[in-house]
Amino acid sequence: MPGGPEALEGIEAAREAKWERPTFAGQLFLGRVFTSMLFPYAVQSEQDRQVGDAFCAELETFLKKNVDPDEIDRTGEMPAAVIQGLAKMGCFGMKIPKEYGGLGLSQVNYNRAIMMIGSYCGSTSVWLSAHQSIGVPQPLKMFGTPEQKKKYLPRMAAGAVSAFALTEPDVGSDPANMATTATPVEEGAYYLISGQKLWCTNGPVAEVMVVMAKTPERTIGGKARKQITAFIVERNMPGVEVVHRCDFMGLKGIQNGLLKFTNVKVPKENIIWGLGRGLKVALMTLNTGRLTLPAGCVGASKRCLQITRDWAQKRKQWGGPIGRHEAVASKIGWMASHHFATESIVWLCSAWADRGDFDIRIEAAMAKLFGSEMVWSIVDHTLQIRGGRGYETAASLKGRGEQPIPVERIYRDMRINLIIEGTSEIMRLFIAREALDPHLQLAFDMILPGRPMRQRIRAAVRSVGFYSLWYPPLWLPRFSSGCPKEVPPRLRGQWRYVEGASRRLARALFHQMVKHQQKLEKRQILLFRLVDIGVDLFAMACSISRATMLHQQGGTENSVDLAELFCRYARRRIESQFDQLSRPEDRGAYRVAQDLLDGEYIWLETGLVDY
Ligand SMILES: Cc1cc2nc3c(=O)[nH]c(=O)nc-3n(C[C@H](O)[C@H](O)[C@H](O)COP(=O)(O)OP(=O)(O)OC[C@H]3O[C@@H](n4cnc5c(N)ncnc54)[C@H](O)[C@@H]3O)c2cc1C
């Protein structure tokens, strides 16, 4: 959504235009709740579970024996023996099909493994996930030629590390404007890649990487269009240089760097999926790849719950365990219920990814957005509950004879999740764009400049036909709910709320479209509120579905308590967003921000030490 009509057209070209499979979250924004997609809660098969159980047991033993997360954090180095051991276990080929030497794990089992590693050592999980969620294996699996798969996948399954190079010093969230070029030579048999790639995870040690570069523009529909192409680049190709290894506030053990490419000669056979399809490769890879990051977040938040449970019972202040004081208890209740909701989203979407019968691009983006934001709050609450000890390093705690509980490290490691693989802001814009798609598909020909009058009229007629049938029922009361009979009684009202609020959301989105028309894309805060309502509704639906399954399996009310509590929190947030989708302070804040940027409030900065 950012940018003008030209940028909009550029993003259009890169995104997956068609919806060939059903979308649950997309329908929520249209006022429809596809109950049958959510009940029963999708889980992995028993056979797949056994594969995952065996692998995770082996992994756990390896981690406990060989990986010291605090030592990795302190030294900033991942021991070679750890990488070799992980490679030997097949961890670099978890998602690579067996026919290419990988373990061929399902998305659920892969995410279970990353969840477990993420609960123990953030750096180790990033080594593996950068390699196979966004690095070479995933795009090759999806778009590679048989030759490319045969050449690269077995190597990577055996432990050849890979990376994904998109970001540049001047280009972060807006990759369409990248500067790295790939110039065809020898009649297009080769390309010379030149440019810089920043913050490339695994980049300094990768043997193979996906590099995004601009290839010559093409004329489409009478207009010159930028082309971005994905190339497989080998580290030992002349002209590839690691300029700098980056060091961050957390994830100290990862290898991440600024890479320079100077006339790197790459054969055309190394193009993934075709010229000009690079951004599409990146976006579609991330549509599923994005599920791994929240799985890692779930691991960290499980660890936080464990730390909190232990500490809030053990630590006594003012006459009792701190967990019995209401202010602390309310934090713990919030943490447990929001952790439950995050897990409910992650495992449902992972199972959907394996089944492949639903389009999960919106759900995966919601999982990433919600998972990263929830874990950040959960870690923050954990730090607060641990008090001074939360702020103290594990080494210092150990040094004075206390248990080295690494909340300080987890805090530093987790912050980046709100930035990588799409910042929270970009995720909200992405979800808004996809949610608006059914409307834009109808209205695109009316909105975009330069469309012939006949096309505009046809679009207008199409729109009238659709909206006259779709809009009025959004106001009609429903006498029967689609709530499945197995939903426990305490959650039935919550489910009915999801149904009603979804229709309200669809109306609100439509009204704002009519009111702001093309300018809606500039009303980011308004759009973000609508997106947040959709995300909370999806989280409610997933939580109710999972609690229903757990309730049926074990007959316990535990999961119902968690789902009910989450729904109460979510409803309060949703009501507050609906109450005032546009607020006077939005305009006020924008004005103050612009004045501040223009130096009008420079007086606020007096008293600083200049550097
Ligand atoms: C540890 C680490 C690992 C990384 N790994 C990789 C990797 O392996 N490969 C790779 O290619 N990249 C990687 N990155 C880069 C990462 O993906 C980018 O940092 C991210 O895409 C954001 O880009 P940026 O930092 O340049 O922020 P910018 O794009 O400059 O954005 C700055 C701020 O402005 C906001 N913003 C930007 N545009 C808009 C808009 N239109 N509307 C509203 N808000 C907006 C952003 O949300 C953000 O808050 C990594 C970065 C780090 C720190």
Structure description:
By secondary structure, this protein is an alpha+beta fold. 57% of the residues lie in helices and 11% in strands. It is built from 24 helices and 10 strands. The chain has helices spanning 5-14, 24-28, 35-38, 46-66, 69-75, 80-89, 107-118, 122-134, 137-143, 146-157, 278-289, 292-314, 326-355, 361-386, 388-391, 394-399, 407-414, 424-435, 437-447, 453-470, 489-516, 524-554, 558-579, 584-597; strands at residues 162-165, 181-185, 190-201, 208-220, 223-234, 240-245, 256-267, 271-272, 316-317, 320-321. The strands form 3 sheets. Strands 1-4-5-8 form a 4-stranded mixed beta sheet. A 4-stranded antiparallel beta sheet has the order 2-3-7-6, with helices on one face. A two-stranded antiparallel sheet has the order 9-10. A hairpin with a 4-residue loop joins strand 2 and strand 3. Helix 4 (46-66) runs antiparallel to helix 6 (80-89), helix 7 (107-118) runs antiparallel to helix 8 (122-134) and helix 19 (437-447) packs antiparallel against helix 20 (453-470). The radius of gyration is 25 Å and the shape is globular. The relative contact order is 0.11. Mean pLDDT is 93; it is low at 1-8. The structure holds flavin-adenine dinucleotide. Residues 2, 130, 164-167, 172-173, 199-201, 248, 251, 256, 416, 419-420, 423, 425-426, 524 line the site of flavin-adenine dinucleotide (FAD). The site of flavin-adenine dinucleotide has 21 residues, from strand 1, strand 3 and helix 18.
